[in-house]
Amino acid sequence: MKDFLKTSINRRKGDSDVFEFGSCQLRVAERVLCRGGQILPLTPKALDTLVVLVKNSGNVVSKEDLMRAVWPGAFVEDGILAQNVSTLRRTLESPEWIETVPKRGYRFTAPVTSAPTRRALPAGLIGTVLILLTCAVFFGVRWQRAAARAGAPVIRSLAVLPFRAISSEPDYLGLGLADVLINRLGTLSQFSVRPTNAVRKFAGAAVDPVTAGRELGVDAVLDGNIQRDGDRVRVTVQLLRIPDGASLWTGKFDQRYSDLFAVEDSMAGALADGLILDLTAAERGRLMKRYTQNADAWQAYLRGRYLWNRRTPEAHQKAIDEFEQATRIDPDYALAYAGLADAYALLGSNPNRVMPRAGTMAKARAAALKAIELDDALAEAHTALAFILMHYDWKLADAETEFQRALSLNPSYATAHQWHAINLLVTGHVQPAIEELKAARALDPASLIITADLAETYLFVGKPEDAEREARRVLTLDPAFPLGGRWLAWSLSEEQRYAEAIRMLQSEPLVNDANSLCTLAGVYAAAGRAPEARRVIGRLLGLGANDYELEYGIAEAYASLGDLDQTLVWLEKAFGERSGALLLLNLDPEFALVRTAPRFRGFTARVGLPQIQ
Questions:
Q1: Measured between alpha carbons, how far is 254 from 265 in angstroms, rounded to an integer?
Q2: Domain 157-290 is classified in which CATH homologous superfamily?
Q3: Taking Cα atoms as reference points, which of 367, 369, 344 lies closest to residue 357?
Q4: Which of 294, 306, 350, 429 is at 20 to 30 A from 176, Cα to Cα?
């Protein structure tokens, strides 16, 4: 094979000069690639690479053999070869024709036929070819320089900033384009991508992209703008390296406004090439995947995700409306069904006055399964199903399988890491749970709920000082986020700073929050103020008549007083609702006074919880 490759570029007696595949024609002697009668510009080395692959179609050609054939006697880095392959994939009508065989090389997969030798090109056409090749060499050098810059240092984390509208376009369009790229790039394992929630704050704002990148803690940012001109839309983007602000890659895209999805396709592919990503056919297929062709459905989905991230019952209801609208517009929109599953699951996992837990979880399961039916490779859908299996069915092993599936499909999906941490925690894997939450936060540093979950986890494992630090971090990001104040008050109570904890729980917005009232009862009990604790429980009982999913919190409050009988009464109610909070019984410090009681141990055994030391 090696001896053949050394001479495969040169014309040999008996060889065909012309090869045809798809609508393309490769004329080896004339050194031209044509499609539909038009000459396609390629650098000389990219053309040489194509010749070797086509002449060996169907066979794997190793990277070493390719480099020896295309650059005989010269030392060439793998990145330059990868860049040539990326250029060819952009040029050919189907990028899947060049398949990456991991750890081996490349294979040309399109059916190839030999055609009769053609006459030489007319002089005028030769001149045209020379001009095109000259341009191609110029752009090829530019790409190779970009490759060299991208090679040091390696890009391991990336943020896609919302695109700026420099015409009269609404801001959500720029955020929407960023969201599509984030979803697509998140399926790749070569680097992590900050989620849409992390970059949302930069939408519509005048921000220096390098400063934003440093705030987001990434190696590089993709920054761009959108301009509409009649029925055309132009998008200009640049990839900036954060340590020195160097431009690694730039791109300009022009498309009809009615087909913004084509702009997204072009940007995703070109960005992968600019980063010199050596993608398999499956990875490239995921990168170029469109989840919907309908712009109205897409915008409804974006609004739904924004509302879902607010994490309040009211916002979840509105998110459900948006996701349902998206699925009505496009019944095959798997990503919208996954969002619907998430919204129903969280609505049914927190106190609300809308729908009992059994109803919300049934709807969540149906939406998750529908999403998986439409697209089994959708990480969001598998994550939603994993949450239901864990939080409602208490099938922790089955949930673990779904979490692993989701994380293999999209390693950059922060919510999958976050919810997976809960499954690890309740099955006794404490330190891996903490590490998984840290991984989730590294992906989404601006997420309030992820950092709040980390604070809560530290409380469960007896580290109130760490919990206080994380809770204060939440409040620095958003002083009005209820869980930040609640976990801070709880951590202060664990540190026996009861007066501070009580003041916090009696202030806005916690004073009227049902979950925070449960914590307040526990703080009063810990401070030795049992009458005040019982008065708070009285308020909770009034709320419990109207709110779903409050039973566990009332059981917590009674447990903090050591009232085993009432604790078990309310735990039974929570059991009837299949409350996900019951998974925390062996960890929750509010149950310390009743945990050793045989009746309490019998109850935890019914839930099927492992004993945690």
A1: 12
A2: TolB, N-terminal domain (3.40.50.10070)
A3: 344
A4: 350
